Amino acid sequence: MAGDPVALYVHWPFCVTKCPYCDFNSHVRESVDQAAWRAALLADLAHEAARLPGRQLASIFFGGGTPSLMPPETVAAIIDAAVTHWTPADDLEITLEANPSSVEAARFAGFAAAGVNRLSLGVQALDDAALKLLGRPHDLAAALAALDVAQANFGRVSFDLIYDRPGMTRAAWEAELARALGFGTSHLSLYQLTIEPGTRFAALFARGELVMPDEETSADLFAITQEQTAAAGLAAYEISNHAAPGMQSRHNLTYWRYGDYAGIGPGAHGRRAGIATLRRKKPEQWLAGVRDAGHGMESETVLTTTERATEALVMGLRLAEGLDAARFAARSGVALDAAVDMAAARRLAAQGLLWVDERGIRLTPAGWPLANAVLAEIAR
Fold first, then answer.
1. Is 320 in contact with 362 (CB distance < 8 Å)?
2. Distance (Å, rounded) from C-alpha 377 to C-alpha 380?
3. CA distance 53 to 85
């Protein structure tokens, strides 16, 4: 809504290697003209900020790709520009995603000095064989060393793990997750491995060379995840994200609560006042667009109230807090009971999959692993 705080997403598209499971907009290049990219990101930011004037800035998120390949000077320049374009919140959250290599860990102090106050580390597995399977360019020793450096430099640290991997047993995941929880970070992102179209894993899976756990095992692994994280004080606040009280990613909550956010950089999406923005995806095309037009915009689409309601429903149902009826109506332009088949919702509530009351709707613990099926059932 106009007047609400805005979030800023900055996409850095480059990686050292392309992971076989990844369908994100990431690219491997032999060299990057850092000065040209810094100038282009600042120009793209200025263009977007001019269309969201007078707003408070709640968060900045450097995602990718691998943003820890950025020079700290570029990160600092973007932060400085963002807090000039908008009024920063007193508790401005600034997150940077990082890979746990020794080269990138050496930049962590520089990122902290630039203003980053939250690091999200792409560990992905606590096992060397699994890291090799996932195509990660680091080993476990490097990951643990980088985690130590991260915790020494940032007050808030999160790291990612991918579970439900080929051959993973219940006992193996229980042990790996227990070890992860023992590192004492305030946030964990725990993702079940999915086979995304167009990835190398998709080709291997189609040829029968990659065998995924069966449905019963996957369900058990999800249940183990919820039980162990809750017992450790990092309960799930979103289907795949777990945090200590008050340590939730405020930036990602903007997405899930369907707030406004500006997206800059190649392939970045944004939402501002009912308009969906999309930047050019290929790095070279985005850079050319900024050079020629002063921005990297591919398209700006005015969303219908039905489209906004659908997006708000899809995002909000993932949250433990669920969908607040008043906020849903204010941000989508549609009443929650008009976007949701309430008869179907009450039927699922009777089955123990949803809670429904005058405040809104939310999934029960039993409903979380069936979120997609529940959504298909209740969406009008």
1. yes
2. 8
3. 8
